[in-house]
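Case study 2.
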Amino acid sequence: MFGYLVADRKNLSEEEFLQYKAAYCGICSCLRKSGTISGSIALSYDLVFLWLILSSMYEPEEKQISEKCPVHPFKGTPLLLNKFSDYAADVGIMLAYYKAEDDWNDDRNLAKRAAAGILQNRFEAVSRKLPRQSITIKEQIGRISALEESKSGDIDALCNSFGKLLGELFVYSENEHWATYLREFGEAVGRYLYLLDAVVDLKEDVAKNRYNPLCQAEKISREWQEEAVEMYLGEISQTYEYLPVVKYSPIINSIVYSGMTEKLDIIRNKGDIINNEP
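Prediction:
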């Protein structure tokens, strides 16, 4: 994903921060054990957010262990694991594969082509394991790519497509009561992420004459950008309130109510939100 779903450290206790790190390291361990050569290719704190939401909703059996790894070869690092650790790792592989393919198609970056090659076999295995999610990712990535290739300024269509993609990933099992609520929450998060990424990249994209949907939508002003981001944040908060989240709620709250807005505050202070009126 985009790396924007990060907890606000100052709002976490030491115990909560250690849980957060242990969940991250647990997903990393699953990636390495699944055969992914470099977990960092597919790993992000966005996956931890997915893990936190699902773990809080369903509260599966967990285990805490210590494990040595390439980053901590001498002293083991704590891992927090449950069935959603593997799921988050699988989601990370699918998203990382499509991201590498997209970057290769855009820039002909050989490093990205190599990354896609590294992930190929594991991606195919995960796609067979999670066909519903895989089909949705492929469909929505295709729609996004078609809009971007046409240099569309339809920012709503782009945000909605990424929302549908992410919404499906938040549904671990579609045959249970909370599937609809989780899908709506994931869709709201996805819309926000796509728009925020376009806002964050706009200044550099304008300078380098690169495609950005906000460049094409000539009537979209700085005020529109800020209002739209705030609206999507409101949708996230509203749909989040329907989720019966108890376990890990302090960590999730620090992401939803503080961490998500921190990136917007940073780019505001830097002046990276620019006026795009003609």
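The longest helix spans residues 179-207.
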